[in-house]
């Protein structure tokens, strides 16, 4: 349990009073951290609001980004509210409104080998120098610098996972980040570092405890594989359908290491998802996969960058989006290969499936290659369900809506099967199914589509 | 109990293919429809199975008394009509097990019934054993990367599980080697009985070496021009289709 038990009133999220209350709540934190936070708060206030005409916000509806509806409350832990374990795993950290509320401790075998798996605030107190070496070293910088600054200024806790040299963590570890009170703002931070030759799998689930509540999430995940390390990171974004969310993620691969990252988007009214994969050492490998089911008037704004700063690296991106109703997705991706990053293999694919004529999928793929010996490709496609496939399924008696759903799940399966964990894959399938069911309740005649 | 097709006329892209087509198939019977290419055999199958590209311009088709013309393809299927495709479509990411289960669930939804996963797999494995299909087959995506023979196996397994009252095999033998041909024939023979009527559409007689039809019909110019018993297929094999054109070309 944390020892942050404060009762404070709800404050406007953008106010100095909120920031001061937040700073005041940080007991026993190193002074360098407070300095970073003060500097970040100043930067947050100084940076302009994003505008649609900014290249990095092209197609986005920036007027949906107002933080006025959201409030800040100093996190307080209520041990009564611990969530049910989500998955079988080797350890789980549960958070409610940015307070650590329990979970399951790291399994003994991994703990004995020196693996650190702690709430970030506790890690900052117990391992300040280790955390400092990595914290905020790699932010995506893909347009949300203002919100990155807000995240740094306001974060309280999150997941800290450190795997020492050569240690293979066999069981997956999980973080469950829930927003609970109405109008709450949360700033979860995940930091995963695998030292040389280490290996680990981490799942993060972000969700609202009540579907009817409205939340603001400003989250970041920083996944760092040191030489020869191997990290699998899967995150599920399932905030309530009236929430606003930022997920600013970085995956960094040093020499001969790999990061395999999967992002699932099913929640939020408006989500900005940034993912920066970096090949920083020779032979590094970054995989970036994503699936999104967007319904209603949801907007899912995805910005990605694959940076190759070292040679012989490999990066592969596949973002698959399914859109219903009046949903809007934006995929803007860039592969950037530095002059010295020879023999790079980099691929980027965005596939959008439109199930409604009113949905809109924007796709902006791009390449920027300075090296001359590379294999790079990018492709984007936007289409509807294949008519002959649909007919084949109808001819077997499936109702049109069922057939469409099965085809959508089939479309997603390419990403789901990369999970390497059937339980998590099933959890995501259930979320997708719930989303479909809610959609059908809203649209009385699904067969009309 | 029969499938009665009366004066059915069908066109595709404004071109009339079937003209006043008539056929009656009772449950338990096997009918073979043969004929030269382009004579409307596949059009008949597609029109009955309500393919959206085919327009019925006249006539009726009653399945055990219920009109199927004008229904959506899924409704026709749930009434008990099954079509084995000439070229089964690939459906990425949808496993055969889930697909067949969804098809069965759709039927049960209408009758208000339900079945457990255990009961389903028991039934599925029993059919697969009978058709000599290995178990791992069910976790593969429907037809994705399948050989011609595997695609037919997949269709035949679906047919065996869905137990249609009437099954139409639309040139399902085209391009198949002898082993794949046997799979199709074994599947039909396995299901043959009082519950199901079969319409086997084929260009070649060879499938009929394995499935002995009760009736053989020769189709030409969008309608049946000659009907007979199994011996008619052999006659066609021997004489080719040239004589059909000579004898009936003037009539249509």
Q: What is the helix/strand order of chain B?
A: EEEHEEHEEHHEHEHEEEHH
Order of neighbouring strands in the sheet with most strands of chain B: 6-9-10-3-11-12
- Overall geometry of chain A: globular
- Biggest sheet strand order of chain A reads 4-3-7-10-12-14-16-18-20-22
Q: Please give the CATH class of one domain in chain B.
A: Alpha Beta
Provide the number of structural domains of chain A: 1
Q: What is the annotated CATH architecture of one domain in chain B?
A: 3-Layer(aba) Sandwich
Mean pLDDT of chain A: 92
- As a percent range, the share of strand residues of chain A is 35-45%
CATH superfamily of one domain in chain B: P-loop containing nucleotide triphosphate hydrolases
Biggest contact? A-B, 24 and 31 residues
The whole-angstrom Rg of chain A is 21 Å
What's the alpha carbon Rg of chain B, rounded to whole Å?
18 Å
Gap from first CA to last CA of chain B: 31 Å
The portion of residues forming beta strands of chain B comes to 25-35%
Contiguous helical run count of chain B: 8
Structural commentary:
The complex is a heterodimer of chains A (449) and B (252). Mean pLDDT of chain A is 92; it is low at 1-7 and 444-449. Chain A is globular. Chain A contains 9 helices and 22 strands. In chain A, helix 2 runs antiparallel to helix 6 and helix 4 crosses helix 5 (128-134). The N and C termini of chain A lie far apart (50 Å). In chain A, the strands form 3 sheets. Chain A has a 10-stranded mixed β-sheet, with helices on one face. In chain A, strands 5, 6, 8, 9, 11, 13, 15, 17, 19 and 21 form a 10-stranded mixed β-sheet that branches. A two-stranded antiparallel ribbon of chain A has the order 1-2. Chain A is of the alpha/beta class and 449 residues long. Chain A has helices at residues 16-25, 31-46, 108-112, 120-126, 128-134, 145-154, 387-394, 400-416, 422-442; strands at residues 11-12, 71-72, 92-96, 99-104, 116-119, 158-163, 173-179, 185-186, 189-194, 199-208, 216-225, 230-238, 244-253, 258-265, 270-279, 285-294, 299-308, 314-323, 328-337, 344-354, 360-369, 374-383. Chain A has one domain (11-385). Chain B is of the alpha/beta class and 252 residues long. Chain B has a domain at 2-90 and 164-248: Rossmann fold, CATH 3.40.50. In chain B, the strands form 3 sheets. A 6-stranded mixed β-sheet of chain B has the order 6-9-10-3-11-12, with helices on both faces. In chain B, strand 4 (54-63) and strand 5 form a beta hairpin. In chain B, helix 3 packs parallel to helix 5 (148-162) and helix 5 packs parallel to helix 6. The longest helix of chain B has 16 residues, at 96-111. The mean pLDDT of chain B is 91. The chains are: A alpha/beta (449), B alpha/beta (252). The interface between A and B is medium-sized, with 24 and 31 residues.
């Amino acid at each position: 349990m944390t020892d942050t038990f404060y009762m404070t009133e709800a404050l406007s999220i953008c106010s100095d009073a909120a920031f001061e209350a937040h700073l005041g709540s940080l007991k026993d934190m190193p002074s360098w951290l407070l300095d970073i936070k003060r500097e970040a708060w100043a930067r947050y206030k100084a940076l302009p609001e994003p505008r649609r005409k900014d290249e990095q916000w092209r197609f986005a509806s920036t007027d949906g980004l107002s933080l006025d509806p959201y409030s800040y409350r100093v996190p307080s832990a209520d041990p009564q509210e611990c969530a049910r374990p989500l998955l079988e795993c080797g350890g789980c950290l549960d958070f409610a409104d940015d307070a650590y509320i329990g979970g399951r401790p790291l399994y003994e075998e991994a703990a004995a080998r020196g693996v650190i798996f702690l709430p970030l605030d506790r890690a900052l107190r117990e391992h300040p120098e280790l955390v400092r070496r990595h914290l905020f070293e790699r932010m995506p910088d893909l347009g949300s610098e203002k919100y990155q600054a807000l995240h740094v200024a306001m974060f309280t806790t999150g997941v800290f996972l450190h795997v020492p040299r050569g240690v293979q963590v066999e069981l997956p570890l999980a973080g469950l980040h829930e927003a609970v009170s109405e109008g709450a703002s949360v700033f979860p931070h995940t930091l995963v570092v695998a030292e040389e030759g280490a290996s680990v799998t981490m799942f993060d689930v972000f969700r609202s405890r009540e579907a009817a509540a409205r939340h603001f999430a400003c989250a970041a995940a920083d996944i760092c594989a040191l030489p020869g390390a191997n990290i699998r990171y899967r995150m599920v974004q399932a905030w309530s359908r009236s929430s606003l969310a930022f997920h600013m993620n970085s995956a960094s691969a040093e020499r001969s290491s790999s990061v395999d990252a999967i992002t699932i988007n099913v929640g939020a009214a408006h989500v900005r998802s940034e993912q920066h994969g970096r090949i920083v050492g020779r032979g590094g490998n970054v995989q970036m996969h994503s699936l999104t089911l967007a319904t209603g008037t949801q907007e899912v704004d995805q910005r990605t960058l694959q940076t190759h700063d070292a040679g012989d690296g490999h990066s592969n991106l596949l973002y698959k989006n399914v859109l219903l109703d009046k949903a809007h997705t934006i995929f803007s991706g860039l592969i950037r290969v530095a002059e010295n990053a020879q023999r790079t293999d980099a691929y980027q694919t965005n596939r959008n499936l439109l199930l409604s004529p009113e949905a809109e999928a924007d796709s902006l793929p791009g390449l920027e290659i300075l090296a001359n010996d590379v294999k790079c490709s990018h492709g984007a496609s936007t289409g509807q369900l294949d008519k002959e496939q649909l007919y084949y399924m109808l001819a077997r008696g499936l109702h049109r809506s069922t057939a469409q759903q099965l085809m959508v799940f089939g479309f997603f399966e390419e990403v789901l099967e990369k999970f390497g964990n059937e339980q998590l894959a099933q959890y995501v399938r259930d979320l997708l199914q719930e989303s479909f069911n809610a959609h059908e309740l809203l649209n009385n005649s699904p067969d009309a589509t | 109990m029969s499938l009665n097709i009366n004066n059915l006329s069908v066109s595709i892209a404004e071109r009339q293919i079937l003209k006043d087509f008539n056929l009656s198939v009772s449950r338990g019977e096997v009918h073979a429809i043969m004929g030269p290419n382009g004579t409307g055999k596949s059009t008949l199958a597609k029109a009955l199975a309500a393919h959206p590209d085919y327009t019925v311009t006249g006539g009726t088709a009653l399945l055990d008394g219920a009109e199927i013309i004008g229904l959506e393809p899924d409704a026709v299927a749930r009434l008990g009509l099954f079509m084995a495709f000439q070229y089964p479509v690939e459906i990425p990411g949808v496993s055969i097990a889930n697909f067949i289960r969804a098809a069965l669930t759709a039927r049960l939804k209408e009758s208000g019934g339900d079945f457990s996963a255990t009961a389903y797999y028991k039934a599925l494995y029993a059919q697969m054993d009978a058709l000599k299909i290995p178990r791992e087959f069910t976790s593969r995506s429907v037809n994705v990367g399948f050989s011609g023979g595997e695609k037919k196996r997949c269709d035949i397994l679906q047919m065996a599980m869905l137990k249609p009252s009437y099954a139409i095999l639309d040139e399902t033998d085209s391009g198949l080697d002898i082993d794949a041909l046997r799979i199709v024939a074994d599947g039909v023979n396995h299901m043959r009985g009082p519950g199901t009527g079969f319409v086997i559409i084929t260009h070649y007689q060879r499938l009929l070496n394995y499935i002995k039809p009760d009736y053989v019909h020769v189709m030409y110019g969008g309608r049946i021009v000659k009907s007979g018993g199994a011996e008619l297929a052999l006659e066609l094999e021997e004489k080719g289709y040239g004589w059909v054109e000579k004898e009936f070309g003037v009539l249509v």
